[in-house]
Amino acid sequence: MMDNQHSSNQHTIKAPVTVSGVGLHTGASVNMTLKPGIPGSGIKFRRIDLPNQPVVKADVDYVVDTSRSTTLEHNGARVNTIEHIMAALVGTGVDNIEIDIDGPEVPIMDGSAMPFIEIIEQIGVAEQDAKKVYYTIDTNITYYDDKKNVEMVALPAVDYRVTCMIDFNSPVLGTQHANLNSLADFKSEIAPCRTFVFLHELEYLINNNLIKGGDINNAIVIVDKPVSEEELARLATVFQRKNISVEQREGILNNIKLRFPNEPARHKLLDILGDLALVGYPIKAHIIANRPGHASNVEFARRLKQYIKKNKHIKDVPVYDPNKPAIFDLPRIERTLPHRFPMLLVDKIIDLTDTQVVGIKNVTFNEPFFQGHFPNNPVMPGVLQVEALAQCGGILALNTVPDPENYDTYFIKIDNCKFKQKVFPGDTMILKMELLSPIRRGIVEMRGTVFVGTKIVTEGDLTAQIIKSRDAKK
Questions:
Q1: Which residues form the catalytic set?
Q2: Neighbours of 310 (CB within 10 A)
Q3: Which of 298, 288, 324 lies closest to 177, judged by CA?
Q4: 281, exposed or middle or buried, with CB in 10 Å at 0-12, 13-18, 19+?
Q5: How far is CA 220 from the centre of its chain?
Q6: pTM (predicted TM-score)
Q7: How does pLDDT run across 55-107, given as a tens digit for each residue?
Q8: Which domains does the chain have, with CATH numbers?
Q9: Binding-site sequence positions for Zn(2+)
Q10: Which residues bind Zn(2+) per the record (predicted)?
């Protein structure tokens, strides 16, 4: 299986494919069609059996129930038991997909993610022309439920890893743990692992008609108490079998063979992957979970999403190391730009590619504009911050043409400009300009951001035109 999780681009599936089955809890027959999604669209379920075919985005904000599985609801539509297909999408590196479903619940299949993996691999995964943005954390993020004795933590890491530990105080199941060190191992190590249930829980679910689609082929039933012949006969009737037996030494209903000695712990890890995918952002962290369940997974996903939303701009902040030599020093900048004192507002360029430039402006009290702009409370004028961005953008634009000294850039439009923080003497402005689209006919569209430290102080969209200068060499 391709480890698309480490790819720099987003992925979808190559063509539509349909899978059919029954829902574990509803018992309803359902057809589910996986369809390619456009870049940046994420994972979406569409209830095609309901009026107007409402769409439910796979997002932790729309989780409404975690009692027996993970359930989403939005726009008047519900989709139950999404965790296994979500884990399969994570394991195959699929970022964007539309899932048309004609019933209220994702089919349970064999209780694992493997059938979905096989279907996705059968149709193939396609790379898209869009970058995949990973989010990392720089501090531990924790969750603890003292009532259920559940603990989860996300640790900073260079990739995505999961460690899961379970302890149900059961002599049959015992204490188990499972590890996933790389998503490349998901298919072989985690995807085949089936959901499990204790016999006492199964009896409650049956008596309350809560697992209408349950079968001993789509769940491991752990026998945690003596079972009479009458009970076995009743279970055989419920599951439409001639007979059902229990190997007391193994403690598994109907003597099915476990795919791994710690299959239950591995399935819990599978659920973690599926539920945390609802964060909505691909993450790099080491997740450690002790006694997890859907409720704790979802609450932890909410904390991760909240952290990312609060801090995601920080990952885009350029790193300024004053010890590193400049790519463009001041003499080189003067050879590229026509600006001179007092209007040259870029001291050096520290990064320059085909699509991005990063410059530095050291703000001092000796700037001539401070003599007339709030002299008793010096604040750098916002228009000059934008001018500094524009000069960096000029360097980016002129870097794309031969003989840049024969051309100038003139800015023709500024949109969406916002001034979020004041800039004072002593601040070091980090000026970042990024191309929004390829340069066509000399028109350059850029996104500009001014940082002081890790804070955004100014941002806006700037459009410039490259024009041959009047004193260009003939």
A1: 294, 373
A2: 9
A3: 288
A4: middle
A5: 31
A6: 0.68
A7: 999 999 999 999 889 999 999 999 999 999 999 999 999 999 999 999 999 99
A8: 9-194+262-314 (3.30.230.20), 196-252 (no CATH), 330-468 (3.10.129.10)
A9: 84, 267, 271
A10: 84, 267, 271
